[in-house]
Amino acid sequence: MAFSNTRLVLMAVVVSLSLAACGRQDAGTRAEPLDNFTAEQIWKRGEYELENRNRPKDAVHYFSEIERLYPYSEWAKRALIMQAYSHHKAGQYDEARGAAQRFIDNYPGDEDAAYAKYLLALSYYDQIDEVGRDQGLTFQALQGLREVIEQYPDSEYAKSSVLKFDLAFDHLAGKEMEIGRYYLKRGHHTAAINRFRVVVEDYQTTTHTPEALMRLVEAYLGLGLTDEAQTAGAILGHNFRSSPFYQDAYAQLRGRGLTPTPQGNSWLTRIYREVIQGRWL
Question: Topology relative to the membrane, per the entry (predicted)?
């Protein structure tokens, strides 16, 4: 029994030493001077870290070394765009933006400039869900995606940028809706109306417009402003009659003996006129 325990202890020691040796070997490889290697050899090491080991941070090291050891070369240019990509893959968005911007500044006419611009926008876009109520990065993503669409309309990144632009735009409207619902639930009708109005006026092409109109019916009824409530219902019925939000708004209006027809001369009446004339959506 004592012999078996001794064997187990020795095996554990051997395994620990082996793992430590592997760790030292990895660290040594990363720290090994690369001055005597060609740019292509260093590039292949960076590619290996990315594709075979999924270590983008280590890949950045090799691509950065190419830029240091072989400045102004074709390999340095390619390594710079790969730095941006590797930083982005590692979730290092600030660093990704920095590398992408340097590529754009240094090689504005290069065929990879479109990809650099796309990476720049993507580094903002991929942070949208992390920013909470602060929409600054969302606006930056929209600006970056628009630049890709406008400056490189024939590139392979334009179509993806259009899709992401629509999603980011929808995200902004969703945040306005979230805050508006918060106010409405607590009886702050005027504050809620201000948020829903932003959606109807500024984000009318998003998926949130039907609900925003229904919430306007609810909020205006809460304030006793029946003209505005009926007009919001009319707009909703004209554009989204099959939506469940219209059914809800219609029920609320009928419950007060009202109908979804335009009344008065509010901002909603102006929008209704534009809808009838076909100039709104």
Answer: Lipid-anchor
Tokens of 109: 């006419």
Q: Does the residue 264 lie in any domain?
A: yes
Residue-wise DSSP of 12-76? HHHHHHHHHHHHHHHHHHHHS--TTS-HHHHHHHHHHHHHTS--HHHHHHHHHHHHHHSTTSHHH
State the residue for tokens 């099959």: 242
Whole-structure pTM value: 0.75
* Overall domain count for the chain: 1
Q: Mind listing the pLDDT tens digit for each residue in 126-182?
A: 998 754 555 788 999 999 999 999 999 999 999 999 999 999 999 999 999 999 999
Q: What is the CATH number of the domain that holds 190?
A: 1.25.40
- Both tokens of 194, joined, read 């201000």
Degrees (nearest 5) of the Cα angle 267, 271, 273? Answer: 115
